[in-house]
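Hello Y.,

Per our agreement to keep a running log of every chain we model this quarter, I'm adding this entry. I've kept the format consistent with earlier entries: sequence first, then predicted structure.
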Amino acid sequence: MIDIIVSYNINPCLISPYFFIINTAVAYTYDYTFYSFLWFQLMLTSFYYHGVGDIISTILDKATICTIVPYGGYIFATKIYYISDVREAMLSTVVVCSFLGTIYLYVYGKHCGRYCFNKNPLIGNWWHACLHVISVLGHLCIILI
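Predicted structure for the entry above:
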């Protein structure tokens, strides 16, 4: 499958936003309607940003990200005081690790020109797709705590 994507030069960042549907559905199932809406919006803005890449798509995508991150942090902060079992503690650990992982890949990568900001756009896009998956996992754990 990866050979097909590489040989046809398909941008993995146009595939990875489909993972956002998982958080959209699970958040809606757990009565986090606004969180669900934000994940659906992120899927749309991510397709737009990675498909077009103009200034409007950049602003919309970054604005949605800058809404999801603090909102997820708020939900996590309200839940962390009520952790009562090992399962919730493990999910919380995954949340913290995924947050630190995304910060590392994006911020450190930008600073050093690596990972998501690799000089080779194909490699950078693969790292960015990994960033999408890691963030889905972290926010999914926030919902499930």
